[in-house]
């Protein structure tokens, strides 16, 4: 017979496993122009995601990025998120619509994709930065 204490312990362990889950490699930072430009000029790989929370394509792209497993090749990549609704000046300077993923490497833009929602679409831009 299973004791009440054992049952509670098992339930708490299961709840902990669902809450913690595996760590993700991608943690996008808010886009701050001066910081992003400094990192791009340093030559480090940078991914910029133009995002609106109400945009289905944006959410699909964000889901793909956030589900990337931690990998050594992603350790040096910096990820930034532009708020399409609140950073119109940045969106204009990037000359892009919402749901755009832009890759930079060695100080210049090396890839760009708008509206794509497949993993292949997002990964092609990400791989350009690597």
Provide an overview of this structure.
The protein is an alpha/beta fold. The chain has a single domain, classed as Glutaredoxin. 42% of the residues lie in helices and 21% in strands. It contains five helices and five strands. Strands 1-3-2-4-5 form a five-stranded mixed sheet, sandwiched between helices. Helix 3 links the parallel strand 2 and strand 3. The relative contact order is 0.18. About 13% of the residues have low confidence.
Question: In brief, what are we looking at here?
Answer:
The chain has 130 residues and is an alpha/beta fold. The protein is built from 5 helices and 5 strands; from the N terminus they run αβαβαβαββα.
Features:
130 residues, globular
Give the topology.
Elements: H1 4-20, E1 29-30, H2 33-41, E2 46-51, H3 56-66, E3 78-83, H4 88-94, E4 100-105, E5 108-114, H5 119-129
Parallel strand pairs: 1-3, 2-3
Antiparallel strand pairs: 2-4, 4-5
């Amino acid at each position: 017979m299973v004791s009440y204490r054992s049952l509670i312990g098992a339930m708490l362990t299961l709840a902990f496993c669902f809450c913690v889950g595996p760590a993700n490699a991608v943690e996008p930072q808010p886009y701050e122009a001066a910081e992003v430009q400094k990192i791009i000029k340093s030559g480090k790989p940078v991914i910029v995601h133009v995002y609106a929370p109400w945009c289905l394509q944006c959410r699909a792209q964000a889901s793909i990025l956030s589900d990337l497993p931690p990998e050594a090749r992603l350790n040096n990549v910096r990820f930034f998120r532009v708020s399409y609704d609140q950073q119109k000046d940045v969106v204009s300077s990037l000359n892009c619509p919402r749901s755009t993923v832009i890759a930079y490497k060695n100080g210049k833009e090396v890839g760009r994709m708008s509206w794509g929602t497949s993993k292949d679409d997002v990964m092609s831009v990400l791989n350009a930065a690597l």
